[in-house]
């Protein structure tokens, strides 16, 4: 019998290439046709391997979902950036390779992020996602998030509505 190891751990600079690949695949799958092509490509190209290597060394917290030695997803977490919301923690990004979606790994990564924020004594959690990203909206609602805030995000000439989900402790 083979045991499959699944763990969430802090990213290491050596993970940068794999994180960049997850970022590219996940963002294309999530946003192609939603975010205009040129701004989407520009956003992806800014996050190449060297960017992720610096991020893994930097003050922000980058986590990876490691499935049997393969980076299948990542998340970035830290302090809530919107002072009008009382929650202290925020998940800035949470993405999986498309082939790892829909089998519970996103929920696992989310719960691990939330647990780490609690360990850091951050009360409550905020996550933002584009309103048109039905997959993300459904996911965050299923995870118990309440959409309590709205905003706009500009992508070149296009502005898209985003929703702020909160979890209270």
Explain how this protein is built.
By secondary structure, the chain is an alpha+beta fold. It has one domain: 3-Layer(aba) Sandwich (Aminopeptidase), CATH 3.40.630. Helix content is 35%, strand content 33%. The chain contains 5 helices and 7 strands. A 7-stranded mixed beta sheet has the order 1-2-3-4-5-7-6, sandwiched between helices. Strand 6 (146-155) and strand 7 form a beta hairpin. Helix 1 (16-31) packs across helix 3 (49-57). The longest helix is centred in the N-terminal third of the chain and has 16 residues, at 16-31. The N and C termini lie far apart (40 Å).
Helix content: 25-40%
- Can you tell me the overall shape? globular
Q: In order across it, which strands form the biggest sheet?
A: 1-2-3-4-5-7-6
* Mean of residue pLDDT values: 96
- Quick one: biggest sheet? 7 strands, mixed
Low-confidence stretches: none
* Strand element count: 7
CATH superfamily: Gcn5-related N-acetyltransferase (GNAT)
The SSE order reads: EHHHEEEHEHEE
Radius of gyration: 16 Å
- Taken together, the total number of domains comes to 1
Q: Which fold does the CATH topology refer to?
A: Aminopeptidase
Named at the architecture level, the CATH assignment is 3-Layer(aba) Sandwich
Multimeric state: single chain
